[in-house]
Design brief:
The structure holds two protein chains of two kinds. By secondary structure, chain A is of the alpha/beta class. Chain A is 40% helix and 21% strand. Chain A has a seven-stranded mixed sheet with strand order 3-2-4-5-1-6-7, sandwiched between helices. The longest helix of chain A is centred in the C-terminal third of the chain and has 19 residues. Chain A has five helices and seven strands. Chain B is of the alpha/beta class. A six-stranded mixed sheet of chain B has the order 2-3-4-1-5-6, sandwiched between helices. In chain B, strand 5 and strand 6 form a beta hairpin. The longest helix of chain B is centred in the last third of the chain and has 20 residues. Classes of the chains: A alpha/beta, B alpha/beta. Chains A and B meet through helix 5 of A and helix 4 of B.
Chain lengths: 182, 139
Amino acid sequence: MASGQLIFVSGGVRSGKSAYAETLVRQAKGARNVYIASGIARDTEMAERIARHRKDRAQDGWWTIEQPQQLSEALPLIRQNDAVLWDCITTWLANELYEGFEQGSLCADTPGCMELKWQELQNTIDSILAKTVYFAIVSNEVLDEPLVDQAYQEWLGKIHQWFASRADRAIEMENGLAIRRK
Amino acid sequence: MRIVFGGAFNGKRKYVKEHMNLDSNVWLEGELPELDEQAVIAGLEQWIRKQLEQQCPEQDILAAIRELAESAGERIWILTDISRGIVPIDPLEREWRDVTGRSYQYLFGKAQHITRIWYGIPQTIKGDGRDEYLHENRR
């Protein structure tokens, strides 16, 4: 039972949060460095970017798991004593909350749907922590502006508060500067 | 006069309830108290928005806030940051952010103590002097 450290890193767009989290995970000296990516390619530019990132990381010795939704599916792919990075909560939440868009029945509009996914996520985080030596989670700052999507922002705030309280370290990135808040 | 500041859904109200004391049970959401009344004032940005929707001019809004802040009575202001993100296209939305920002600047200048909340974690960003010694605020 490894029961690793949980690190929460949040910052604005291009704040250097992902690069910083990657450095932390590399320094943790896990059996492998595993990267869980939650982005979905919605156009060719995105697809190219995701492929490029994946290739760059492979050369850097990372194992990439593409997991846009249902983080629990990544669990069997994670081995004992891995060091894991998950990037990021904001894309995962969008993918989960707006699931069913094509069918016209959003998870966001279905009572209890997101609550279930959130409960499952918390369990998955605990299970990943039990296996890994180090688990860094990256997210984005989108709550310091007028509300554009109340359901999304309310969930994100709730999830961030949980991670900040659960984490061994919580870091806010400001233009490449890591401000340790916990 | 104390301020608790931070983004939406960051746990500001929870922090005030659990960690701050005020000799008053008055808790207002999107409303201002009477002059000299002790209270927790939450949702000031919603009050400002309501005034703007009723065509109340900016100077009257700022004057009302100033008059209240200068009156007797201890108050805790819970201020939600709406200053970031893309500049809105809608003129009212823009004006709302502008007036809210200018009100916050005034209140920040006036407050004795300001706590910023980041996902439930507090940071004192203003104590009681002109110079802020952030390194002394660590707890």
